[in-house]
Amino acid sequence: MLFRTPSDRLPEMMTAQRFDPIRQAAATRLAGEPLRGGPAEHDGDGGGSKGGTESGTVTKTRPKTKRPNLYRVLLLNDDYTPMEFVILILQDVFNKSREDAVRIMLHVHQKGVGECGVYPYEVAETKVTRVMDTARKNQHPLQCVMEKQ
Ligand code: TYC
């Protein structure tokens, strides 16, 4: 046949399908990365749900929640900071009731160290800063530290 176009001689796989840009994108995307807006994309409900796809495949998405690292905030005893000042710090900064604040202050006074609370890093850091700034302003040597739990 003299007037055949070049594509007449190519197998079907090498012509139309091979140059389909959507198939090309699907074939070359990174493994495990769903096409944006495609059926494999989860429903954004926080994970753990079952979802059907257009192909009838049932997938279970894993929640990608990470537990934050927690830090204990500790008060240290000293001989000079007034008991009442420590009680007010525990009430204002750590949201303790008067009764809990007295109990924690006496624990620190007797044992040398005591826990005021457990928080994610930035919350713990902010509380330590508030205690140290307030103590310095009032010229008390009260010390507050944080340690990874
Ligand atoms: N020991 C202090 C006093 O006798 C009271 C105190 C308690 C100070 C707890 C610091 O973290 C502290 N006045």
UniProtKB/TrEMBL annotation:
<feature type="domain" description="Adaptor protein ClpS core">
    <location>
        <begin position="66"/>
        <end position="144"/>
    </location>
</feature>
<comment type="similarity">
    <text>Belongs to the ClpS family.</text>
</comment>
<comment type="function">
    <text>Involved in the modulation of the specificity of the ClpAP-mediated ATP-dependent protein degradation.</text>
</comment>
<keyword id="KW-0378">Hydrolase</keyword>
<feature type="region of interest" description="Disordered">
    <location>
        <begin position="31"/>
        <end position="64"/>
    </location>
</feature>
<comment type="subunit">
    <text>Binds to the N-terminal domain of the chaperone ClpA.</text>
</comment>
<dbReference type="GO" id="GO:0006508">
    <property type="term" value="P:proteolysis"/>
</dbReference>
<dbReference type="InterPro" id="IPR022935">
    <property type="entry name" value="ClpS"/>
</dbReference>
<protein>
    <recommendedName>
        <fullName>ATP-dependent Clp protease adapter protein ClpS</fullName>
    </recommendedName>
</protein>
<dbReference type="InterPro" id="IPR003769">
    <property type="entry name" value="ClpS_core"/>
</dbReference>
<dbReference type="InterPro" id="IPR014719">
    <property type="entry name" value="Ribosomal_bL12_C/ClpS-like"/>
</dbReference>
<keyword id="KW-0645">Protease</keyword>
<dbReference type="GO" id="GO:0008233">
    <property type="term" value="F:peptidase activity"/>
</dbReference>
<dbReference type="Pfam" id="PF02617">
    <property type="entry name" value="ClpS"/>
</dbReference>
